[in-house]
Amino acid sequence: MASKIPGSFPLSAPSRLSQGEIAELYPLPRRLMNGAQPIGGAMEHPHPEIRPGVCPELLAETQAIVFPAGIAISALAAEVFYFDVILHSSAPGSFYLGAGVLAAIVMALICRFSDLNSIPAIIAGEARTRMIMLSVSISFALLLCIFNLLSVSGSFPWGWLALWYAFSIGFLLTARLGILLWARLLKAETRLLQRVAVYGTMDLAHRVAEQLFAEERNLVLTGIYSDDLSSLTHGLAAGGMQELIAAAQIGACDRIILAMPSAAKEEILEAIADLEVLPIDVQLCPDAMSVPSGIACTQGACGLVLVDLQRPPLDGRGIVLKAVMDYVLAPIALVVFSPLMLAIAAAIKLDSRGPVFFVQSRHGYNHRVVRVVKFRTMSVTEDGPVVTQAVRDDRRVTRVGRFLRRTSLDELPQLFNVLQGELSLVGPRPHAVAHNESYARLLHRYANRHKVKPGITGWAQVNGCRGETKTPEDMRQRVELDLYYIKKWSPWLDIQIMARTALVPFFSSNVY
Predict the structure, then answer these.
(1) In angstroms, rounded to a whole number, what is the distance separating the alpha carbons of residues 384 and 370?
(2) Where exactly are the structural domains of the chain?
(3) CA-to-CA distance for 351 and 317, rounded, in angstroms?
(4) Whether pLDDT at 4 is above 50
């Protein structure tokens, strides 16, 4: 008889799961797919597909960015409408842009210190119309005070200010409605439920799951994993560490809790090292499952001792900012470089036989394989278990290809990968699957570079690590730079890397 947690689904999954079997069982357990209720939360309909979960903080961070930006955009829209449409005249745009930026800063501060971006309110679908109107009014009142102190309050027309106020309220209410509809859609698809997997000894893992999911209402248990041979033999666990990592890599869980005895120090350290490759939350719940109040520790709302071991490299705000940069700059780059890309395509066809583009399988975010597009630079298109790197005076490289590789112009088609969400403009460079697997066996922490999206350019590339990697030491240096980028990521670092990328072809001598 399979073991069962009170109020949950029977833990009767096969002892060893293939990728296909995991895809059938997750993100929700088998009973949930048949319409049962998830542990700790209601579910509108069965959800058999694996779709990535969305952290609620992402909704709040999106709103925190959109609201101040809307104030600034409304200032320019009001200027155009008031002067061009109503007065049929022109006005100095710099003043109105400056006023919009100043108001955006004030609005951002108000949102930060108020509950306007409250995550529970967004998830519950509360419109908070009065709060939005009050925040806009306070922003404009403070702005007028600033203008009065600077003695510029009389230098702008009040008609424009009235339009700006009306446009701002209209924009913010519309944006709020859009975010609420987004939250409602995610909630209907159960993508706002955090999917949690528990790994450890079976008795402690069951106790953790029973206590955690009885109190936390936004969680769903995706499985209990253990490498204990008896639990695997009797089908009590959904699998061991390998199955847990495979499930996380296909998006079947968003958080992992290690339920292991404190005395098992070596096993805990080994599990932490194994899970280090995943870009998700990892927590430790030792056998001291609850502690008296007043003792310094990380303690969840359910009374469990939950020690944070690992956090994703990017938080909600980082995800939004990086996505905005990718989806704004990539289309602009495609428009700017489209004439050059057409000329390159014609040159490739005239220079040698074969297709214009070269498509290769490479490891992307969370070890998922993506199909990367490049301009063809060789007479061969290798994409299999054996991929030979280009070397100096390589006869496979075409005449046009040599120029493209030297200038990195062969990477331009990857802008389409960015628009598809497979790559980022900046990030660790993806390697061919064959190379990736061999490097992962040779280098410690190599797999950690997959905790963010790979990029067209990266910190390693602008620091001279381009072209052939002749020795493991060459790749080790590249991996260290990639891990530094992941640890130190910021929008300003991305901007710096993109600016330096334009200079790399003129100072790099190891690309051929």
Answers:
(1) 14
(2) 19-35+192-310, 56-188, 316-507
(3) 46
(4) no
